[in-house]
Amino acid sequence: PLRSSFSANKHKPWIETEYQGIVMENDNTVLLNPPLFALDKDAPLHYAGEICGFRVHNGPSGSGSVQFEAVVLDRSTGEGLVRSKEPLDCESQREHSFTIQAYDCGEGPDGVNSKKSHKATVHVRVNDVNEFSPVFVERRYEASVPEGRLFDRIVRVEALDADCSPQYSQICFYDIITPNVPFAIDNDGNIKNTEPLDSKRQRVHTFWVTAFDCGKNRAQADAQVVITVKPSCKPGWIGWTKRVEYTPGSGSIPLFPSLHLETCEETVWNIQATVELQTGHIGKGCDRDSYSDRSVRRLCGRFSV
Q: Sheet of 79-84: strands edge to edge?
């Protein structure tokens, strides 16, 4: 018998040139836009007009054929599904790119003379799942402030979140969980006092704070805040007296034996002090301005500074 030269599979399958995909972290089904459909002009011819498979090739990221596969859902319509071979991790790699081809079923059940489409590019973005909770950088925060004043910021606490997306990695707000403390905290972790503090009433304030990411996950462990209230302080000389009583002939005496410079814990770069003795009010028996130094020492004795 004569064989016909007519080919049973004249056309290649056709797919879009580019697809955008989204897959949830810890899932494997990729949602494509546009949806994956392979068309063949040989349809509705049996085998030649049907789609038997898709093939995934490595893209720029080199992960296509390793991590992704594509399957045919309906051979007659050419509908396909792209999925990852195992759940993806947004924190390790957020975007994937690879190429895909469609194959028709050829000229018979054995797939002989199967034709393939061009390669289409697929870009897949991994959507984050809120799997991590905030973690404070420090477990304990300490600060000290002078009493009697209001401060815009006494100390700042900070928590971090290991999720990959801004929604779940961002700290949305902090909260002071210890009740009835004279402090407030803003969404950036800045702590301020809500009333002037009194060191005599309470020298040390201890309380706990927590943090929430924007997916409402609470911190794994709360942080402790310790604020010490310092008594009010005024810099200056302490322990000196304006009047000195001296008995003539009693020898030298120290003028300021308990003199102390209060610096209020601030750094001192330079000190200048001047001592002036005023004797104009003293009677003739010890009038320094009217006698020579030798006579003064004989009459009045000696001071030492």
A: 51-58, 95-104, 120-127, 18-24, 29-33, 79-84, 68-74
